[in-house]
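To the team - zinc ion complex, inputs and output below.
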Amino acid sequence: MNGLTDQERKRYTRNLVLEEIGEAGQLKLKAGRVLVVGTGGLGSPALYYLTAAGVGTLGIVDSDQVDLTNLQRQIIHSMDNLGQAKTVSAYEKLARLNSDIRIVPVQERVTTENACRIIDGYDVVVDGTDNFPTRFILNSACIKTGRPFIHGGILGFTGQAMTVVPGRGPCFQCVFQEPPSPGTVPESPGVLGAVAGTIGTIQAAEAVKILLGTGQLLIGRLLIYDALQLSFREVQVKKNTACPICKAL
Ligand SMILES: [Zn+2]
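Output:
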């Protein structure tokens, strides 16, 4: 593995002084490959912080274009990007923030057919999607290929996060069982942008901890954030021994 350049040493000074990171940890981040699926409310802060932290390879998956209604929470995009592919818009911001990492735009919609191919080559997958079916697909592909999956979700003034590490605790499907039937969930629900910021940032911290191999992950713990009450609480969640996705692990 290559060492750090002088520029990297300077850029990551505040990482390097941390006992939990140091030079060895920064090299782990540099060698790390994180895929963020979705460049929306969750993906925006997650991508910014992972880029700033020096994660060496960052994949960004999105098939949408930037719309004015996105800008209330999807802070990686701006007025200049309206109508542009979100991957292009995100790439441009992140490349400006950190030219020492590799950013790989993936202009695709995740499906059952392509999920394993899209996540191939990454160490960790961050869920920045806005719909349940895609989360079930990603969870299944991550379990199948042995990759950690960091779930995040937001609705109104509340948000939730949970980390799935195959073979260690429950998977997303153990907890949520099946996607809600079509029509039962509003297509464009209200959500406070700042809540997305909090949850996406928690997901970024989880991804960094996985790459470093340090700290306690949100495994078997569903974290629930309520911005109106300003409270965080945890629900202990168990592996479903009959889960069709992870029971064999
Ligand atoms: Zn499961």
